[in-house]
Write a structure and sequence with these properties.
Order of helices and strands: EEHEHEHEHHEEEHHHEEHHEHEEH
Number of helices: 12
Strand order of the largest sheet: 8-5-4-3-1-12-9
Radius of gyration: 20 Å
Largest sheet: 7 strands, parallel
Length: 367
């Protein structure tokens, strides 16, 4: 089982943006020193989620130069918000900068406010994402003298006459990582020999206290499709080694009591940030075209904590992770800076990285 760090911190004011970027660079560096194998970043806009998320490809390129042994990933790129040409170009450039150690999570996006800013109808997000990915595959495959690739997809138009540069780092383009919730997404990952994100809930309920039940269901479906696809053992092994289960908030302390107390402080601050953003989201959802169909529970409820949090003493965290390791989950994505990145929040996040590196990761690797 691998461990990756998710740089998912928020900024609460313009004055905090610059410091947050610097602090996240230092946090990623500590993660690399603590035995984590990858850095994942979100892709979000406008809603105060994270300053670097507006172009996390830039941050990944910067970190790739500082941390050349690390893998880099996205959880996840909101495909409807990217022109297919810019998407394929950026993936290829970063594929070279990371020397093929790139994992591009892909999805249709979650926030109507972002869609409005990019002139995308929220109701069209899913089909727009599917079509953009189809066009991206055409662009990756196009050679210089092939017929032009026509782009005619909602707000994205164009005609590519030559080819995308640079070419991918390897024989194929960088691995994409769909969320294995819908059959089509799971099958896309399986047929291509890519890893997948494995959900811990089943909509319309976005949360619950039995995450392993959902993880096992989606993992078994994806793994079955992967094995049926006829890949070599090496391809299957690589895909499963990066198949990812995500925790939005991971917190480790010396004792369970300390971990729970500190987690509640973290989640109260996180929930306050979410509620601050709700006013802007409400404006975005003022018409039918931009109304969400699901709601995430309050972060202080048992349903949210049960699905999205991993916390406790090192011993408790190890016991929690054992069933996931036995199931075959290859990568655990750890949100260690969830919420506003205050000085205290960063201290707690660094504490988690150190305890994970000293006790949890060696124990899990030794199973």
């Amino acid at each position: 089982m691998r461990f990756s760090v998710f740089l998912n911190a928020r900024s609460m004011s313009p004055a905090e943006d610059g410091r947050l970027i610097t602090d996240l660079v230092d946090h990623a560096t500590l993660a690399a020193q603590s035995g984590f194998e990858a850095v994942f970043m979100p892709d979000h806009h406008f809603n105060g989620y994270m300053p670097v998320a507006s172009d996390s490809f830039i941050l990944a390129g910067y970190l790739a130069a500082r941390l050349p042994d690390m893998h880099f990933g996205f959880s996840v790129v909101s495909v409807p918000l990217h022109h297919p040409v810019r998407f394929t170009e950026r993936v290829n450039v970063l594929d070279h900068l990371t020397k093929g150690k790139l994992l591009v999570g892909v999805g249709s996006g979650t926030t109507p406010e972002e869609m409005i800013g990019f002139n995308v109808d929220y109701r069209d997000a899913s089909p727009l994402a599917e079509k953009n990915l189809e066009i991206a595959e055409q662009l990756w495959a196009k050679r210089m003298d092939d017929p032009a690739v026509l782009i005619d997809n909602g707000p994205y138009q164009g005609r590519v006459l030559q080819r995308i540069t640079p070419t991918p780092y390897g024989e194929n383009h960088a691995r994409l990582m769909p969320v294995a919730m819908k059959e089509a997404s799971a099958r896309r990952a399986a047929v291509n020999g890519w890893p997948a994100f494995i959900p811990a809930f089943t909509p319309p309920k976005i949360g619950g206290t039995e995450p392993f039940v959902h993880v096992k269901k989606y993992f078994d479906i994806y793994k079955g499709m992967l094995l049926e696809a006829g890949h070599s053992d090496a391809v299957v092994k690589d895909a499963l080694s990066w198949t990812t289960h995500t925790y939005q908030a991971v917190h480790v302390a010396e004792t369970d009591e300390q971990a729970r107390e500190e987690l509640e402080v973290i989640l109260k601050s996180y929930q306050a940030a979410v509620e601050r953003e709700a006013e802007f989201n409400a404006r975005a959802e003022s018409n039918e075209a931009n109304t969400k169909t699901d709601r995430t529970p309050n972060a202080l409820t048992d349903d949210w904590i049960g699905t999205w949090c991993l916390y406790g003493s090192p011993e408790t965290v190890i016991e929690h992770l054992k069933p996931y390791a036995e199931l075959g989950i290859g990568n655990v994505l750890c949100g260690t800076t969830t919420g506003p990145l205050t000085e205290e929040r960063l201290r707690l996040g660094d504490q988690t990285l150190r305890l994970m590196g000293e006790k949890v990761i060696p124990a899990i690797k030794g199973l």
